[in-house]
Amino acid sequence: MNPVPEIRSLYHQSTHTWSHVAWEPGSLRALIVDPVLDYDAPSGRTGHDFLESLVGLVESESLKVEWILETHAHADHLTAGARLKDRLGCQLAIGAGIRAVQSHFCNVFNLGDGFAADGSQFDRLFEDGDRFSLGGMEVRVMHTPGHTDDSVTYVLGDVAFIGDTLFTPEYGTARCDFPGGDARRLFRSIQQIFALGSATRLFLCHDYPPEGRPPRPMVTVAEQRAANVHVRDGTSEDDFVEMRQRRDKSLAMPELILPSIQVNIRAGRFPDPEDNGVAYLKIPVDRM
Questions:
Q1: 117-136 per-position pLDDT tens digit
Q2: Which residues are CB-neighbours of 170 under 8 A, at least 6 positions away?
Q3: DSSP at 178
Q4: In order of start, what are the domains of the chain with their CATH numbers?
Q5: What is the largest CA-CA distance in the chain?
């Protein structure tokens, strides 16, 4: 029987992002899902307060972190993946669809021959159905595109880390208007997640709680099927696609999309410093 993982989730308030630390209780072998790097957009300054909170949890529980897992190349926060990898000496992984995401944004940001759009910035690129071990636990990777080409879900027993595919039931589902996004593919990916079983615990990447409710890191498949405002049981694929396409046309771009994408397709690394010792991020004018 697969051991039940221990999970702690930390909330990054300014980006409404959940980062999760999961481990096998016996061996203390651990993974971290979707870690966040503090970033102040007006000043362009980075910070390590949230990263240190994750490291503090790892150290307090005496965990042996083997993996940092990205559910996709995020457009709303900068990943701390590379800095945590350097700090903890573990592997950094993402879905193999990152190559398509890199290829697109390589053109948007005119990154040129100095940027390899082959996923080599990551230690491992997961394909649909890949499996790996965390101590005595098996982790299975599901390709769940629709929000982005590279979106994946990581499944450990009755737990799934689902990225942006679903939010809490009252908030609905991910947008599909980013490059590689497709509402029909998202609907089908959600059905794959629902097929994991009603009791499966779905750990979210984001929550945007209404006033008076604390942010939730997890909901069950049963809750989503009963109450998700976009895709509850009985919602047809065509109705979902029509709703999602109409809604996406009304959405503004995420506040941090320009810095986030440039850093996250590099696995959390910034561009090399220029001859003055400063690293720069680009703003493509009238392109997005």
A1: 999 999 999 999 999 999 99
A2: 210, 227, 229
A3: S
A4: 6-252 (3.60.15.10)
A5: 59
